[in-house]
């Protein structure tokens, strides 16, 4: 190629470079430190409640205080609201009026899992089990024969709440069994989605009977006795419990070069942590910076702790009231980065991706103009102006970013909280970390992309 053509090519064409060819040495060092903190965040929050509590603890360590209605707020004041223990809203008051809008980053802290059914405990074949009901889009075959824990709360009639953690540290762990290959001929012929029916996702709890041969319910009794000894709960108390079955495995580096992180719950705690840490590390912003960590995204953002809940509007309206500003004026001038993971190109499954429009591992935070399915249905489809705005914000802060779609057109689809922000009259764009084996009990992301998502969040708060 002639020098002239080379220069012209550089000028005219869009180079989509690997982040390692662009990242500075100082960013490389900061990336490792950031990812170590992120792994801790994952290990300390395997449920939305634990993640919310950990978020609040980190925020308080960094000077955030619980917001109280009517509180006067001046530039630099840091407040948060914990919504029913399961979602967190944080704000750093900006120098400018809320009438100028806010910079919001919204991520979610719930992840796909198995919830216990309201009447979970039974015995069969001289063993005891818990019945589960899956939460979010899981591939059921991935949840058998892996070590599991149970975490959550039991709410008692007297208002007391008991935190439950079963299977941590030296404690015994749990399992869902699968068929042996020797007898799996018929099962093996079934489509992947049907080979493990939902009603067979039953957690094995034990096999040692309590009492004598002529006693009844001896296997159930053994389990209930132990739960009662440890937590003082009765079988009926499980009716008002939220117990989540999650993998035992902690976050760990992946690959000989340790360039990736494997963990349960990257979707979407990888973006939640970026949004949170970005806020904790921000100077006093011009516009008020808001970090929204929502629950219930994986089941449609419904409910009091989901992104469709008025809890967010209430939090924002309270902030606006403190400055005598109308919420609608604040919203119409606000920007929201809906920070949620996207699918990373996987060469093992290349045919579900449009290779020219897919997020690649190590190419940085993946912008997504729309998600949805069947012709963008169910997506907010950000406008060109909003995409141009974020290109500038990211480029000015040397954020490695890429443009992406979730997968091939008509190959499937997905959703995020973006549409619920956009419906509030807030200009919104999706952006997040590309993930390999998304929604699996053990997902994989690249460290460079985690760090660039954090840098991107910081740039948005600062804008
Ligand atoms: Mn997500
Ligand atoms: Mn998801």
Summed up:
This protein has 463 residues and is an alpha/beta fold. The protein is 28% helix and 24% strand. A nine-stranded mixed beta sheet has the order 1-2-3-13-4-14-18-16-17, sandwiched between helices.
Characterization of this structure:
This protein has 463 residues and is of the alpha/beta class. The mean pLDDT is 97. The protein starts with a helix and ends with a helix. A hairpin with a 2-residue loop joins β5 and β6 (127-135). The chain has helices at residues 3-12, 25-43, 48-61, 185-188, 192-195, 218-231, 266-280, 311-321, 327-332, 384-396, 418-422, 447-462, and strands spanning 65-66, 78-83, 87-92, 102-108, 113-124, 127-135, 148-155, 161-166, 202-206, 241-247, 252-254, 260-263, 288-294, 335-339, 342-343, 365-368, 401-404, 427-432, 434-435, 443-446. 28% of the residues lie in helices and 24% in strands. α10 crosses α12. It has a nine-stranded mixed beta sheet, with helices on both faces. It binds manganese (II) ion (MN) (2 copies). One manganese (II) ion (MN) binds at residues 267, 298, 439.
What keyword list fits this structure?
binds manganese (II) ion; 12 helices; 28% helix; six-stranded antiparallel sheet; alpha/beta; 463 residues
Average pLDDT metric: 97
Q: First CA to last CA: what distance?
A: 40 Å
Radius of gyration: 24 Å
Low-confidence stretches: none
Strands of the biggest beta sheet: in what spatial order? 1-2-3-13-4-14-18-16-17
**Helix/strand class:** alpha/beta
Count of DSSP H/I helices: 12
Give the biggest sheet. Answer: 9 strands, mixed
Instruction: Quote the beta fraction.
Output: 15-25%
Helix content: 25-40%
Tally of DSSP β-strands:
20
Shape: globular
What ions, cofactors and ligands are bound? manganese (II) ion
